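User: Second chain of the day. Same drill as before.
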Amino acid sequence: MTKVLILAGGQSDEREVSLRSGKAVYDALLTAGAYEVELVDYHSHSTNDEILRTADVVFPALHGPGGEDGVLQARLEGLGLRFVGSDATSSSLCMDKWRYKQYLQDSLPVMAGELVARSDIWQSPLTRQPFVIKPHDGGSSIDTIIVRDIVTLDRQAVEALFERHETMLVEEYVAGIEVTAAVVGHQALPIVEIIPPADGEFDYENKYNGQTQELCPPVNVSPLLQERVQALALQAHKLCGCRDMSRTDAIIANDGSVYIIETNTIPGLTDQSLLPREALAAGISMPQLCRQLVEAALQR
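Assistant: Same format as last time:
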């Protein structure tokens, strides 16, 4: 029987979500049948090669640095193991939002951005208008600040981010509707419209506390714009060399323009996550989704 080894947990700030993703994948593959399934709380130093080599397919359900940034993928490639998801090169590119933006800016619509340090942040022209500041190598909206009004800007809160990050990505703020579109295999799934709480943002807390509305199908996005978002997500997936699955976040501006924010190579897979919700809207259950991903890895 084919053995699937699911890696979850890790040591990033997204550890708790990763553990939930891993458990969801584990339960789904047990339901799917046909596999021997093992769930491992992954630590790069204590999870030895012998454990990894017991698998016919490794299923990384790790989010953030150390799991989604190409480091684990390079390790698995070095061991000659088949695994679900993008390779090391694609994973590294998509994890670094600054490199990703530079890579795509001549091909796809992205917001203006700049990599800044604490010493030069206020020299950036982008900070003289509404802007977003976030880690260029993190996820789940952790340490992200959206500044809609520079008159009430809290400079101390922004500068405090540099106590945890040497450099940060500053982007122009674009008002509009936040959406996301997943790709599984070579298919763009139905998009999700994201509506944060009236007094909050789509941040780490509101992603998982049930306060954010995630509408699939969308209510405020025309069918034509939905197709546009799907097409851009598929283009980003292909241009970045992603495989098996990805999820691309975007903003539909008030004038109807669409801007890509980022592409996630290991999207959340919990029961509250967006990719499983989009798959279900396309008629793909969680067990079917996970089985499809495993079979794609087996065929490589």
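The chain has three domains: 2-84, 94-109+176-298, 113-172.

User: Great, on to the next one.
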